[in-house]
Hints:
219 residues; alpha/beta; Rossmann fold; 8 strands
Amino acid sequence: MFGRITRFITVAMSAVFMLVLFSAPTQAQDKILVGLSFSDFETPRWSQENEIMTAALEEMGYAVVSQQASHDPKTQNDQISNMITQGAKAIIIVAQDADAAATAVDEAAKEGVIVIAYDRLIATPSISAYITFGLEKVGNGQADGVLKALGFDPENPGPTDEWTTDNPVKIVKLEGDPGDNNAKFFEAGQDEVLQPFLDAGLVEIVARQTSLTGMKPTL
Length: 219
């Protein structure tokens, strides 16, 4: 897993390098500044990837400023604005809120700053690139793990000693932060794996929280 993340980050760093190389003149004395804007560091992967990104960029010869917003969209936008003021030529953003971050991205684009949406799509055409991975596959894996923990074979939607059509598994689905564009793809991946078990009457979704409607019972 760590190896896949490292390769994923290498792609992001290569994208930054190429975009900045062709858009920003080389400076004889001052290093080009790149900003890293993370939604939070409470999520372990973000602090780890911040360290990897920072090291990779510095090895390429860039100066780096990195900040995290503690899950606050306004704080993140303010931090991005500050990076622009500091003279950042490119900013990589892990957005807390895809819609809210668009305001800061549009501001950056007006100043000629290259913005790369990393892992989470930002809702504006002003981004220069979007780097992510197989999002629906993540949802596939989540549902697959739940089914296996319940004793099912995800490849064979048949009953178990405990779960039958007379006693189906009752599932409540929590489908994510409305500001996280990835959530809908995770949801689609989950539903793809669960659907054969729903059709067989072995799984029943009794309620689901969607990003738009909140918690709703399933009728």
